Structures
1.
Amino acid sequence: MRPVAAIGRRVTTRGRGITASTMVTVYIVLLLAWPSFVSISQLGSLGRPSLLWGLVLLFWWILTRLQTRTDDDRSIPQPLRYAFAAFAIVALISFAAAMLRGQPGDQVSPAVTALIRLASWAGVFFVVMDGIRTHSDAARLVRRLAIGGAALATLGLAQFITGQTLLDWTASIPGLTVDLADAATRGSFTRASGTAIHPLEYAVPVVASLPLAVTAAVSGGFRARLSRNQGWWWVAVAVITIASVIAVSRSAIIGLAVAVIFSLPAVPVTFRWVIGVGGGILSLVVLAVVPGLLGTIVGLFAGASDDPSTQSRVDGLARVPEFISSSPLLGQGFGTFLPRYYIFDNAWVLVLVELGVIGVVSFAMFVTIAIGSAYWASRRSPVASTKAMSRAIAASMITIAVLMIFFDGLSFTISGGLLFFMAGMAAAMRSVAHGESFADHG
């Protein structure tokens, strides 16, 4: 097994062992392909395979860091490492303060689970950040994320057409607990959820993968030579776009708009009009072909002020001072604010309530520095495809951050895991760009 820190070095001979790229690819599969409502019965709330694999990644990262001395003169400081550390420290202090104040028995277990979930995210984040050090590894992961988003969108399309979850068969597998409800509906339409437990959780990987798929389509998969399979990337873009439109969700539509807007700077000028106009035409065709869909979507926005979910979000903002009044700086305690108190449907607000002002500031810094790291890489690298990848990753991070406003994304397996995965990718691109710049001037 090769050390994580050594994987990205320029080595002409292929070493044996498991690479960071392989390890995190397993995580992508478990995160997107394994239904988030299916867990290993004996492990309860900790039985999600992606969560467990994240802990494996953390152990692997710690082990390799202890065994390896990094003396690579191409290494570069990672401000995102310190931003994550700050967020994790605030979470730990908030948890400790909550335990010292005393908590009802049914709040202790969810709080401990939240810390374990944070440790799993840490494993994913650190292995991606420190293990992905070359252009080829980064391109490979971006392609796989784009394919995963397109596959999830395809499943969503099938659910929309059939009106079924198509995953009922998971309940027959022994040793698993399946928390699967009937397919959600809005109006006369089925709301697709893919492998997610909720349609909004499903919307995050689908919409966030659009910038990656668009950039892969334009660049031919970030390969030096254009492939005959380049057209399939445009198929992936079309599938993701259609799935976002028929999601029957305000959040998905807003996320789609954000993804498109921030994707355009990542592609050559000649493609921007093609993508913008082509995407608009494709969306209009879908709305015209599906009877009643246009009226339903227009109604979602026109009647937003009277919608119960919108009213709940607005009412929740008014109640924030009440919930943080006892501890405004550190909040109620990480993982202790249960849905029985209130459902905010806003990850940023829930971070404020659980971790206080210090916590939400540290989380905002983490997200902002991740986006900034990706944009820094796009400016520093002399390689066109690295620039494009970096901008696409930044666009994906922005899309996820915006979607977190509309639901408690950190409480869901897929959306929470994807946020920290993409943050790791943003930091990795900083290393890739610095290495390419070092080689260019070396």
Note: The two ends are 30 Å apart (CA to CA).
2.
Amino acid sequence: MTATGESPATDRALQTWAEKHREALSAYLLDLVETETPSEAPETFDRFFDRLADDLAAIGLETERAPGEETGGRLEAWSPDPDGEVQLVLGHADTVWPLGTVENNPPEIREDVLEGPGALDMKGGLAQLVFALRALDALSLSPSLPVHVLVSSDEEIGSPESKARIADLARKANRVFVLEPASGPEGKIKIARKAVGHFTVTIKGKAAHAGLEPEEGASATEELGTVIHRLHNLTDIDSGVTVNVGQVEAGLRSNVVAPKARAEVDVRAPTADAADAVAAEIRSLEATLPGTELTVEGGFGRPPMEQTPGNRLLWERVTDVGQRLGLELEGTHSGGASDGNDASQHAPTIDGFGAVGDGAHQEFEYVKLDALVDRVALLSACLLDEPLPADPHRELGGNDER
């Protein structure tokens, strides 16, 4: 790559290159989907990461494989001049699908659609990345900042081993592109994400015979029922805070007053302040039934990706690039979380920048191939866009959700 370019001619060249390589892009994605990589099977990532590393090295990036302790580790690739500020591209190779899914549900291409387990979330984004970088290389175009790529193997299980490295890289990044799938078949880009928390509420009661001496017991199940109502009452749809008791476990058997009960609680909040407030409410819960005790464990594992000035400016830049390419991009707020939540604490971040389709984590999961071609051109053009200023307020001036 030898020259940076932002012009109508450059945009047309990127689009033309992506369109000409549609068939190769589809075949590449199919190959990635057929190579199974469940989060819980670390041994499956060797072949996958070796393939991806070879493809990235072939277009001039240096690569390094970091082994995991309990996961498949991660792959990093970067431009030969890694010193100073970079633009970070994040992806993950792990899927929620167990080994054998491809055999039972083989991926297939039908006209404009590639259907298969993990195609949308998020091997489509990885194919997009490889072909965007190939486009720049083939057209002798250099990104405005060195590119640093990190592909993890543990995003679907909360990024326990890759989270710290992502934060380190984001701290020296001018901007971050997260290649998670776009929202819905309309292809909306995720410009904000909620914080995600997990709490465990445990009730300790006292066992007694339910028929002979129930008055001697203290029912943990009864107390948990009261607590569940109190937890669900913390949901405020208008503010975006949701609390869901998704799993409960209580009692020993029907003729025993329950000595213990437990609830697993999912909590989502749109801002850090809202997350702190609802966490304080949950931690302040106390048992009300005499003879029972209540404890709360857990907290927020992913901070919110909020609409900071830097994030808003990056979104404006992306929509401007999209308009140059003839793409009317729409932003949305997501209740789910990704590595973008963590990266956005340190650098302007945009998420859902990957493949367009539907059915993530579902049997009908698919990618729209024509839209993936567009996303290849979009990513490559965004990598050419000039760096964001140190002070985003200096440039901000538009709507943050066009």
Note: The radius of gyration is 24 Å.
3.
Amino acid sequence: MMSRSIGRFVMLLAFTLGIGSNTSFADTPIVELRIRNHLFFPDTLEVPAHTKIKLMVINEDPTPEEFESYELNREKVILGHRKTIIFIGPLPPGEYPFFGEFYPKTAQGKIVVTAQQPSE
């Protein structure tokens, strides 16, 4: 029984470190999105097409918020004064709206995926 647990641990560790995978999470660009006063900042994010992105969502509010996007097929609760990473993409060019499930009238934004590199 113990060797099975060790085997699972080794497999999980290898997966986490990306061993045996062609994808390196270290090379994945990080894009920050902040939640402040039940609003997303910035409310529009520009990212390159066909690129996997680490979306770091930082909730500066004391209350939780849920990042929700039907187009991205993502939903994630971010507790107050916490942060999380949501992987998105690679995506074709287009606009992908998102909103805060708990404050949908104010917490709204979109990810604009462009064929060009994002502007600085």
Note: The longest strand covers residues 30-36.
